[in-house]
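REQUEST ID: PR-0412
SUBMITTED BY: lab tech R.K.
PRIORITY: routine
TASK: structure prediction, single protein chain
INPUT:
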Amino acid sequence: MTKPYHLYVVEDDAALREMLCGYLEKQGMAVTAMAHAEDMLRRIHRLRPDLIVLDVTLPGMSGLQACQKLRADGDAVPVILLTARTEEVDRVLGLEIGADDYLGKPFSARELLARIHAVLRRSALLPGAPQPHLPDVWIGEHRFSPATRSLEHRDTGALRVLGGVEYALLAELVSHPGVAISRERLAAASHARGDEVLPRTVDVTVMRLRRLVEPDPAVPRFLQTIRGHGYMFVPGPAEAARPVGAGAGGGARVARDPGGGAAALDGTAVRRPCAGAGGPGAQHPCGAAPGARRAAPGAGPGPDARHGGAAPAPARPAGR
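STATUS: complete
OUTPUT:
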């Protein structure tokens, strides 16, 4: 049996909210009602609805601001805006920030239902279908490509095409870095509506993905467990700085820091020896002691100059 569509109805008018919820439930839909956009944004990471009916003129954060934040966060959940503003500029603004439809008040419940069905038909996307609009994402040594449903190793170029459930679950996580996603939402994102999803299905899929992308699957760095809730994608410092376009064999192995050193891909520091420096204890060619800092450009010699103007360290007496 196919489970019913789940809708959020976000409306501050209590009488209208109760009327809409009662009507939509009679039409076989599951409805979660709330009066504030902030509440909706908190709940959506636990259980993602199939569609949001969102009033524009809400107390606190407006419906337009909430819709804009959803789209900025990469969430493509369908949104129908409700508003008493009927001017063309208001309708155009709502659609431009990412709403899927716009319905002016007053309206009939039957018209809203027809628009809900129309938007759901347009936005239907089978779990596991490639999503070319999503950018590539680095996960450790692997580049995840939503357009090709694949993981490519940076050094070897080895390519692995993911299965539909693995791909859909990973795409949901990497689309919301640093956000805890519930098991229920991950199950809904990675399975078709009529599928029977066992409680451990999401956990088993995450374990398989960890074996593919984690240096040590037993101590995950990127796909982390949020106890009692679900999972979170945590990009490492290298993933935040690494150019997405660098493929296997392309791009630098280290990122240079402003001080002339280097940061390894795992975030550890890598020191670069001075040109012409010898073995341990050797001085810099210009006379600076080992480990000495560079002076600011243009700094002349002086008692506090560390590099470029410092006198060579006195030689140790022989035999010591």
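NOTES: The first helix runs from residue 14 to 26.
REVIEWED BY: pending
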